[in-house]
Design a protein that fits this description.
Layout: E1 4-9, H1 13-25, E2 29-34, H2 40-47, E3 51-55, H3 63-72, E4 81-85, H4 90-95, E5 99-100, E6 103-107, H5 112-123
Parallel strand pairs: 1-2, 1-3, 3-4, 4-6
Antiparallel strand pairs: 5-6
């Protein structure tokens, strides 16, 4: 079975580490984390993720600006991006069926079952 490649971009290292361990324990994912959004593009070009989980509010560059860079990149423009944010409540995400501004969102703290369902929705089983 080919593992899906997931990249997590979030400035909180303990959060990315916990998420990485949780996803890798499923046996379905190879995960790379990047805690500096300014290095995320270079890291993504090396890793070539199947999907990116991205924080919205980060120092140096916010997730919206970083997502625009991904979408402008020839090698990364087809990679789905799912935003992770503490700026919206889980109820708001559910009320908008997981999308805000046309892009998928998950509220922090991330529920692992909800995240797994989101990954399967975007990547297939």
């Amino acid at each position: 079975m080919n593992k899906k490649r997931i990249m997590i971009v979030d400035d909180e290292a303990p959060f990315t580490r916990l998420l990485q361990l949780s996803l890798e324990q499923t046996g379905h994912y190879d995960v790379r984390t990047e805690n500096n959004p300014l290095r995320a593009m270079q890291a993504a070009k090396q890793f070539l993720p199947d999907l990116v989980l991205m924080d919205v509010m980060m120092p140096g560059m916010d997730g919206g600006a970083l997502a625009a860079q991904f979408q402008a990149s020839n090698s990364l423009n087809n990679v789905p991006i799912v935003f992770l944010t503490a700026a919206v409540k889980r109820e708001e995400v559910q009320a908008h069926e997981g999308c805000i501004g046309g892009l998928p969102f998950l509220a922090k703290p991330v529920d692992l079952a909800e995240l797994t369902q989101c990954l399967q929705q975007h990547l297939g089983p």
